[in-house]
């Protein structure tokens, strides 16, 4: 080491030009295995070794912190630092150039050294992240590691981001994420060249930022009753006087530390103060800011809150605005970001409709309805934010009324398309569609996942997300600032619950945000991903391996069951058994659909290089008279009701069917010939917190011609039997004594949840997994 290698930048440019022009000796760009995938990258023969005598030189004093940052990476794992100098000829040279944009860089590594040419400080930082990812993962270790050769593969990279806004949102309200864990996530974001951390600091479930003028926001608003043993949607509201033992908040000093740590990593912290809804925590502290017609105890909510989620700031009370302005004063002073996010989502107008102050405000301001009252609220607060020299951000509900001037809209509903309404009015926007980029959703086959909400956003779903749609008007695209993964934390009780949901999907978000649209290639991505995950592993960060689990479908076809097994990872093989044994590397290789026509238990798992990668999936297929028989009266996906396979305790796992709850769920099984029947049953799930309950009435009718049906019996349930708490599966079994070919089930919905339910008044749903006829 030590030899000064680059005498002129021209030489390097020539090398670059030749390499990219000819491709001579270069492997393809995929062979530089880093995420997010660079614009252009070629690996060439050779490696550069970093030792205690390696010198990092920077072209100007302003870049020196970058060299010091890079040097600091080696201190703990390698036990040495690098010499840093300004203006010299180091083995690693970092210089500014003026033909690149601020975040862009060129990187040349050969066995003699490294040259980084950066458009700006940020570009230099990102070049160093590229180097970091190609170093042995032990570079992330917190303690000394012996015997590591700190090498970087020779390569040429030219890189710049696709989008300026490359974000992650962390909901620190539902689950208070300790400061140390936020810092750790920021460092992992930096490795991915993500640059915006949107902190959802306030919600019904906790106020997480010290506001000196309003101490009760944290004294009262950051604490709630302990219902941690119960899933979030099932948690009952607090009672007056109950002790509030679960809490946490960031002091302003904590936040300054987070901001500084993030700034050093090119990450901007964007604070969100949600209004006018998601405000029970603030209103628990200052109940006088709720509409005076609120007749309920206002506490910090441990769960969804039921109709307490309707308790929002009073828009008719001047004190509300004085209070929020006081909060904004401190937020604007604390956060250097030019943005403040004002939320604006999911504001139910229940109390505004009844509140004399809100109604008076509507009269005074000539507002036709409560939506425009919210618009008044948001515009008034936006003007205040702007008076502090900041720009306003908000969720896409702001498009329900007149938009605040200049507001940047975050599209989350309807694949994010709600934001296009704002784009049509010339507003900038960020895409964080719930259906693809909400990291709270399941990331893999649900049978294996910790409990969370809704359907799946798998790693591949996130990776394949393309924000710019063909049907967009041409004026929308320049208004799109970028994309954001949003991590809501309802189901988190520990920092590792957060990182499990965030990683690896945040890597796919980074790829969407940074890499060229044209560079998508799933097998290459997962290979590069493994390199990043090795860094997470070395940091001791828990991440999900869900991409190695098997998703099944079991479909009735011609009186048999067709079993399809799928894994997102293209580099694994699926092996299975049908004899009850645990699958191993010697078990049968799954190559195409399995066809079965009798009871079976399939056990399967994924393997790579002789090693088991995912969890064992067990599929017990139990046959009864209905199995694999035609199911009439419902659309095709309903044939899971006759696929011999039961659902899990998650009604969203694709083994459960739900219909339109405004009419009875009605279907007929054609047994194909007449049988003597003794029992007709359906499997139902109760998931209390999600308002999933069994039917009020189950009627069974039979026929021999599928025209004239005769009733053979029914089961009826009372409210007490239907609206039981908990999550469990029940088979509703009707004993019968009849001979028939066609069996019709009519399931009446249970109706609205009663007033003492966690979802009072909401229409409940029935989910059915299987029909059993004997
Ligand atoms: C949201 O999901 N309520 C923005
Ligand atoms: Zn009011």
TrEMBL record:
Which domain of life does this protein belong to? Bacteria
Catalysed reactions listed for this entry: Hydrolysis of terminal non-reducing N-acetyl-D-hexosamine residues in N-acetyl-beta-D-hexosaminides
Choose one Gene Ontology CC annotation of this protein and give it: membrane
Which residue intervals define the domain GH29D-like beta-sandwich in the entry?
Answer: 560-616
Q: Which residues form the Glycoside hydrolase family 20 catalytic domain?
A: 163-516
GO-annotated biological processes? carbohydrate metabolic process; glycosaminoglycan metabolic process
GO: which molecular function terms?
beta-N-acetylhexosaminidase activity
Q: Which SUPFAM superfamilies match?
A: (Trans)glycosidases (SSF51445), beta-N-acetylhexosaminidase-like domain (SSF55545), Galactose-binding domain-like (SSF49785)
Q: Which CDD domains match?
A: GH20_chitobiase-like (cd06563)
EC numbers listed for it are 3.2.1.52
The active site annotation covers 346 (proton donor)
Span of the signal peptide = 1-26
The question of whether Phosphoprotein is a record keyword is answered with no
A Pfam entry, by short name: Glyco_hydro_20
Give the enzyme class: hydrolase
Question: In this protein, which residues make up the domain named Beta-hexosaminidase bacterial type N-terminal?
Answer: 33-159
PANTHER family according to UniProt: BETA-HEXOSAMINIDASE (PTHR22600), BETA-N-ACETYLHEXOSAMINIDASE (PTHR22600:SF57)
Please state which protein family the record places this protein in. Belongs to the glycosyl hydrolase 20 family.
Q: What is this protein called?
A: beta-N-acetylhexosaminidase
């Amino acid at each position: 080491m030590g030899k000064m290698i680059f005498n002129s930048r021209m030489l390097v440019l020539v090398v670059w030009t030749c390499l990219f022009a000819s491709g001579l000796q270069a492997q393809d760009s995929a062979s530089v295995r880093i995420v997010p995938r660079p614009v252009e990258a070629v690996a060439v023969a050779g490696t550069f070794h970093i030792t205690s005598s390696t010198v990092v030189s920077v072209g100007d004093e302003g870049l020196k912190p970058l060299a010091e940052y890079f040097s600091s990476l080696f201190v703990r794992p390698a036990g040495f630092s690098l010499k840093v100098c300004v203006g010299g000829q180091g083995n690693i040279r970092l210089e500014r150039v003026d033909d690149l944009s601020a975040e862009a860089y060129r990187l040349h590594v050969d066995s003699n050294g490294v040259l980084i040419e950066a458009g700006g400080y940020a570009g230099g930082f990102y070049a160093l992240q590229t180097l970091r990812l190609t170093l042995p993962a032990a570079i992330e270790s917190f303690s000394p590691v012996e015997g590591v050769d700190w090498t970087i593969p020779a390569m040429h990279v030219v890189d710049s981001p696709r989008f300026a806004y490359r974000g992650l949102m962390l909901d620190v309200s539902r689950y208070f994420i300790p400061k140390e864990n936020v810092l750790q996530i920021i460092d992992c974001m930096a490795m991915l060249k993500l640059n915006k951390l949107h902190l959802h600091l306030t919600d019904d479930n906790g106020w997480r930022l010290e506001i000196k003028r309003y101490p009760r926001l944290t004294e009262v608003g950051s604490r709630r009753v302990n219902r941690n043993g119960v899933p979030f949607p099932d948690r009952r509201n607090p009672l007056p006087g109950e002790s509030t033992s679960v809490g946490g908040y960031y002091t302003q000093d904590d936040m300054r530390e987070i901001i500084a740590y993030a700034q050093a990593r090119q990450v901007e912290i964007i604070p969100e103060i949600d209004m006018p809804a998601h405000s029970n925590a603030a209103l628990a502290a200052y109940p006088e800011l709720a509409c005076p017609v609120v007749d309920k105890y206002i506490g910090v909510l441990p769960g969804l809150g039921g109709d307490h989620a309707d308790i929002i700031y009073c828009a008719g009370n001047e004190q509300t605005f004085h209070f929020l302005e006081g909060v904004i004063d401190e937020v604007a002073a604390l956060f250097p970001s030019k943005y403040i996010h004002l939320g604006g989502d999911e504001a139910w107008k229940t109390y505004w409709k009844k509140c004399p102050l809100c109604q008076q405000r509507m009269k005074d301001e000539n507002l036709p309805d409560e939506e425009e009252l919210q618009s008044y609220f948001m515009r008034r607060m936006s003007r205040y934010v702007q008076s502090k020299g900041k720009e306003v951000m908000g969720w896409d509900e702001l498009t329900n009324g007149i938009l605040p001037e200049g507001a940047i809209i975050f599209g989350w509903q309807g694949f994010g398309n709600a934001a296009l309404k704002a784009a049509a009015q010339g507003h900038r926007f960020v895409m964080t569609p719930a259906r693809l980029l909400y990291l709270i959703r399941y990331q893999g086959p649900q049978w294996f996942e910790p409990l969370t909400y809704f359907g799946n956003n798998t790693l591949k779903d996130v990776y394949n997300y393309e924000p710019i749609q063909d049907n967009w008007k041409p004026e929308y695209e320049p208004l799109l600032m970028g994309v954001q993964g949003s991590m809501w934390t309802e189901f988190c009780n520990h920092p590792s619950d957060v990182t499990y949901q965030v990683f690896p999907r945040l890597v796919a978000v980074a790829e969407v945000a940074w890499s060229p649209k044209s560079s998508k290639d799933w097998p290459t991505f997962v290979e590069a991903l493994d390199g990043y995950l090795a860094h997470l592993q070395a940091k001791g960060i828990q991440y999900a391996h869900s991409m190695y689990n098997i998703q099944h479908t079991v479909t009735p076809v011609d009186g048999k069951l067709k079993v399809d097994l799928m894994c997102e990872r293209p580099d694994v093989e699926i092996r299975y058994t049908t004899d009850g044994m645990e699958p191993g590397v010697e078990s049968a290789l799954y190559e195409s659909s399995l066809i079965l026509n009798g009871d079976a238990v399939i056990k399967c798992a994924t393997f790579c290089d002789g090693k088991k990668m995912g969890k064992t999936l067990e599929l017990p297929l139990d046959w009864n008279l209905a199995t694999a028989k035609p199911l009439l009266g419902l659309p095709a996906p309903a044939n899971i009701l006759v696929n011999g396979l039961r659902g899990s305790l998650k009604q969203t796992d694709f083994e459960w069917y739900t219909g339109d709850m405004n009419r009875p769920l009605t279907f007929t099984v054609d047994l194909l010939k007449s049988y003597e029947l003794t029992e007709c049953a359906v499997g139902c799930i109760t998931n209390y917190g999600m308002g999933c309950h069994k039917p009020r009435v189950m009627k069974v009718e039979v026929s021999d011609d599928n025209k004239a049906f005769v009733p053979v019996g029914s089961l009826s349930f009372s409210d007490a039997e239907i609206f039981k708490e908990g999550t469990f599966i029940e088979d509703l079994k009707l004993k019968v004594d009849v001979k028939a070919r066609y069996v019709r089930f009519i399931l009446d919905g249970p109706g609205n949840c009663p007033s003492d339910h966690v979802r009072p008044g909401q229409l409940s749903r029935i989910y059915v997994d299987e029909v059993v006829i004997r």
